[in-house]
From TrEMBL:
Pathway note: Organic acid metabolism; glycolate biosynthesis; glycolate from 2-phosphoglycolate: step 1/1
Residues annotated to bind Mg(2+): 11, 13, 172
Family affiliation: Belongs to the HAD-like hydrolase superfamily. CbbY/CbbZ/Gph/YieH family.
UniProt feature coiled coil, ranges: none
Catalytic reaction equation(s): 2-phosphoglycolate + H2O = glycolate + phosphate
Organism: Sphingomonas palmae
Enzyme class label: hydrolase
BP term (GO), one: carbohydrate metabolic process
Task of the protein: Specifically catalyzes the dephosphorylation of 2-phosphoglycolate. Is involved in the dissimilation of the intracellular 2-phosphoglycolate formed during the DNA repair of 3'-phosphoglycolate ends, a major class of DNA lesions induced by oxidative stress.
Domain of life according to the entry: Bacteria
Protein name (record): Phosphoglycolate phosphatase
Protein EC: 3.1.3.18
GO cellular component, one term: cytosol
Keywords: Carbohydrate metabolism, Hydrolase, Magnesium, Metal-binding
Amino acid sequence: MTSLPSIVGFDLDGTLVDTSRDLAAAVNHALGAAGRPTLPVARIITMVGGGARRMLAQALDATGGYDPDELDRLHDALLDYYAANICVDSTSYPGVVEALDALAERGVTLGIVTNKLERFTRPLLGQLGLAHRFAAIIGGDTLGNGMAKPSPEPIRTMIEGCGGGRAAFVGDSIYDVSAAHAAGIPALVYRGGFTLEGVDRLGADGVIDHYDQLVAMLERL
Ligand SMILES: O=C(O)COP(=O)(O)O
Ligand SMILES: [Mg+2]
């Protein structure tokens, strides 16, 4: 097929927006509150994609382990810190705005499916001036427990919210590829995101090195 899908969904962290420094600051705040050593940004971003709780659990595992009560307490601390520091040092990746413009000009409806909590997703997109571009924004808690990526449900809900039609998804992690494929749609991944090694082995239908390749790659799906 050589035409564009009518709907393109995007992951957020590591795909449209480089949130690495703000997420790492929130994780390191929680580690500090627990008297743990901090972790480098490059290590923390490998823990992103499955939601904040899973990210923190991995960071605690890497610094001595944890018990469930401690995880709950530090998760609250992480979320409080992130709420107050959501867009201190986060920016969209090079070419993202131009690519979203190009898709909108071609009549493509855009959506977001992220495992970031919805109460953080909307303000972050708002502060970056991106929110108005998306017809549907689905966060990690929008559909309730167990309905985050790699479940296909948030992808299906995004497609419905965008009016239905042929869709594709763009992400940066195995959660994105798995969710898209489980929903029966193709997935592209961005090499500049948070999967530092093995992007070519995620099983995606294509890999973009820069957003100036996105439209052409979507046309070839
Ligand atoms: O794991 C998260 O908190 C969010 O990650 P995502 O935007 O890549 O889904
Ligand atoms: Mg991501």
